[in-house]
Specification:
The complex is a heterodimer of chains A (about 300) and B (about 270).
Chain A (H helix, E strand, L loop, with lengths): L12 H26 L3 H21 L3 H20 L3 H29 L5 H7 L9 H28 L1 H6 L4 H23 L1 H18 L3 H25 L12 H40 L1
Chain B lengths: L1 H24 L2 H21 L3 H19 L5 H22 L4 H9 L7 H30 L1 H6 L4 H23 L1 H18 L3 H26 L3 H23 L18
Helix pairs in contact in B: 1-6, 1-8, 1-9, 1-10, 2-3, 2-4, 2-8, 2-9, 3-4, 3-8, 5-8, 6-8, 8-9, 9-10, 9-11, 10-11
The chains are: A mainly alpha (about 300), B mainly alpha (about 270).
Chain lengths: ~300, ~270
């Protein structure tokens, strides 16, 4: 615990790892999140974090690499959701729910077995809520490769994906295989979400997947701009959140800091509130601007 | 053990009834988010030193209203995700600042049905009665607006208000279920059995009754298995709820001569409201 009392924030290894990995995950989440929000799959995006978490718990029982557990379970969960039915909107809801319910049941078992086999405390909370400060720096190369793979895959299918997200009928008529594009996206979503669940925990995984893209889509309408802005918002919230969480150790006499997830979520919510307010202000403002010349015309 | 059976039965019946509408309305995400919000409330109540049930109810209601109000301007799944994340973050902050030890957290997440005490049953029963009454009052408009939203608007139903009212019922029922089966598993009972029941019957009353039957069977079996094996009840509730759905779906697919893709539309009931 000596690093707590070191003077320099950026001299701290944990903080540096957190900043680098956090930024990586924030960017990947933002890009995947734009499509998730457009497709109305926030529920699946969130459910897959819980599925991935169950996989992480299983991996720590089976002494496999946790990254493998998180991402393997996520991809399996995405496949199960697709098999039960993700095509129709209301079926999607049930399919996601059934898979999520089963996954939480399995997590309950795995976490129980973990507490039986080891006497370490705090494993439930760290698995469920995660902490960027506890991420091993050795995760970085694997995480970077996976993140880049997801980004490359999305770039590859962005056109058919965008079209089938906005109008499945039109996309089908144009010869796009909507079903396969959808399944491909689910797999990428699972990998992205599993990656962020292991790096920053399940709360932040959903927060960064949905928050910045939802704020962005209120403001920007072009895909490239939306993706860029969402990335910026996500990285900003993550970095400021990590720094505030680090500082918060010194705020209370008890030397008990607030978690990173708390700060990042509050920042993400603030961004959303500001984006919503800006949209409303712009709507009113633009309306009055348009009305003004007409009144002048009337007078002259 | 008797307490576990009584409180478990109450929770199972209520989850099945509420879940029937959750599945019908496609509001599974809200049904997942609200119990998690309630979990944060329990953590907060521990911190401040109030009765956990108060924290559960207050936070579940806050989540319900938050989702209901934000949904008017934003897509409802986005609103739900944001509300969920905010609640969980608050919960994490409460846990970080309090001295809760891990078993207490586990109990809230995964339930501690065998630890329900006799004086906890009365508030649970009262809240459950309140929820059932709410459902009875809203039964027809809820059914209509779930199946044919356009028609219910034409009939003069205030859909936005109905939506919030329904979320309030979901909130109260999750608040009482969280201490019994836990935040994560409340959701499993709300989705699996009702979704399975819906596959079997297209008539609302029958599907609702069947949903209660499936839910009770799941929970009773889960309590028994948990008692014998000593494994956490959450494991059995979660996996059995999903299993009920999968088994029913396979059976329906094998037996039905008409290919419906395993999905039967609920018939629109008598339309006089």
């Amino acid at each position: 615990m000596r690093w707590l009392f070191e003077p320099g924030l950026f001299a701290n290894g944990s903080v540096r790892t957190a900043l680098v990995l956090g930024a990586l995950v924030a960017v990947v989440s933002a890009v995947v999140g734009i499509f998730t929000v457009l497709r109305g799959q926030s529920f699946a995006g969130h459910a897959l974090t819980d599925v991935a978490t169950a996989g992480g718990a299983a991996a720590s029982l089976a002494v496999v690499s946790p990254l493998f557990g998180f991402i393997g379970a996520g991809v399996l969960g995405a496949g199960a959701m697709d098999a039960i039915g993700v095509q129709r909107v209301k079926d999607r809801d049930v399919a996601t729910g059934v898979v999520l319910g089963a996954a939480t049941g399995l997590s309950a078992l795995f976490l129980y077995l973990i507490t039986l086999s080891t006497s370490t405390t705090g494993s439930t909370q760290s698995i469920l809520f995660g902490s960027v400060f506890s991420v091993e720096p050795s995760t970085l190369p694997d995480a970077a490769v996976l993140g880049l793979l997801v980004l490359a895959g999305l770039t590859f299918i962005r056109r058919p994906l965008l079209m089938s997200s906005i109008s499945p009928e039109l996309a089908g008529a144009r010869g796009i295989r909507v079903r396969w594009v959808g399944l491909g996206f689910m797999v990428m979503l699972a990998v992205a979400v599993g990656l962020s669940a292991i790096v920053i925990g399940s709360i932040l995984s959903t927060a960064l997947l949905i928050g910045p893209p939802a704020s962005t889509l209120k403001v920007a309408s072009r895909l490239s701009r939306a993706v860029a802005l969402a990335g910026v918002l996500g990285v900003f919230a993550t970095w400021l959140g990590v720094i505030l969480a680090y500082d918060s150790y010194y705020w209370f006499a008890s030397r008990r800091g607030l978690p990173v997830s708390f700060f990042v979520v509050v920042l993400v919510m603030l961004e959303f509130v500001i984006a919503s307010a800006y949209t409303r202000w712009r709507r009113v403002h633009v309306a009055t601007l348009r009305r003004a010349p007409r009144e002048e015309d009337g007078r002259s | 053990m008797t307490n576990a059976w009584i409180s478990g039965t109450i929770v199972a019946i209520l989850a099945a009834a509420v879940g029937f509408f959750v599945v019908l309305r496609g509001s599974a995400f809200a049904a997942h988010a609200i119990p998690n919000g309630a979990f944060a409330g329990a953590a907060g109540a521990n911190l401040v030193g109030v009765n956990p049930l108060v924290g559960l109810v207050v936070f579940a209601l806050a989540a319900a209203f938050g989702i209901g109000v934000t949904s008017r301007r934003t897509r409802s799944d986005v609103a739900t995700a944001l509300a969920l994340v905010l609640m969980l973050a608050l919960g994490a902050a409460f846990l970080a600042t309090s001295n809760d030890y891990e078993p207490a957290v586990n109990a809230l997440l995964f339930g501690e049905i065998l630890g329900v005490s006799s004086n906890e049953i009365l508030p649970v029963a009262l809240l459950a009665a309140l929820c059932v009454m709410g459902l009875l009052v809203l039964y027809r408009p809820l059914l209509l607006s779930s199946i044919a939203p356009d028609l219910s608007v034409a009939k003069g139903v205030n859909v936005a208000l109905l939506d919030v009212a329904f979320l309030v019922i979901v909130a109260l029922s999750s608040a009482l279920a969280v201490p019994v089966v836990g935040a994560l598993l409340t959701f499993s009972l709300t989705i699996g059995p009702p979704a399975a029941a819906r596959l079997v019957s297209s008539r609302p009353h029958r599907a609702l009754a069947l949903s209660v039957v499936f839910s009770l069977a799941t929970l009773w079996a889960a309590i028994a298995c948990s008692y014998w094996t000593n494994f956490p009840i959450g494991f059995f509730v979660g996996t059995m709820s999903a299993l009920v759905y999968v088994v029913v779906r396979v059976v329906v697919a094998l037996t039905s001569s008409v290919r419906t893709h395993g999905r039967v539309d609920i018939a629109v009931p008598n339309l006089t409201l």
